[in-house]
Structures are given as structure tokens and as C-alpha cells.
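The protein record filed here:
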Amino acid sequence: KVEVSLDGAGWETVKEEKRSIPPLRSYFESPKQTVFDISFPPAQARMVRITLTEKSADIWRWSIGEIHFFE
């Protein structure tokens, strides 16, 4: 789930989706560094909160190593 906020108190969900498997092309190229592209409508924000909402049985560790925002 991706949420944005202007003040850190009120949060607006801009994207929420469930994925059962990682993106296949990225997974086959580098299984330990799979890339997820998440698109959402433009939104004004000072803060972005990304939440893992569901744990997979075969993926026991999750982290964000790098993040890019594009307008």
C-alpha cells in the first residue's frame, strides 16, 4: 500500500494492490533484487509511506533498497 501525506498526520492511499508473485522478468534477471514498479496518480506530498500488507510464504525478507519518484 502506498500512502502520501502533506503533514504526517493525515494520510491518503494512492495505491493498494496485492501481488501473489514478483514481476517475472525482474525476478528471473535477479531473484534477490526483484524490481517492483508501482504507478499511481500524481499527488502532492511531503511524505510517502509504503506498507507491506501481506506476507508471502516463500518470501521471508522484504526491504526497500532504492526508490525513485517521477512526475
User: Anything to note?
Assistant: The longest strand covers residues 2-5.
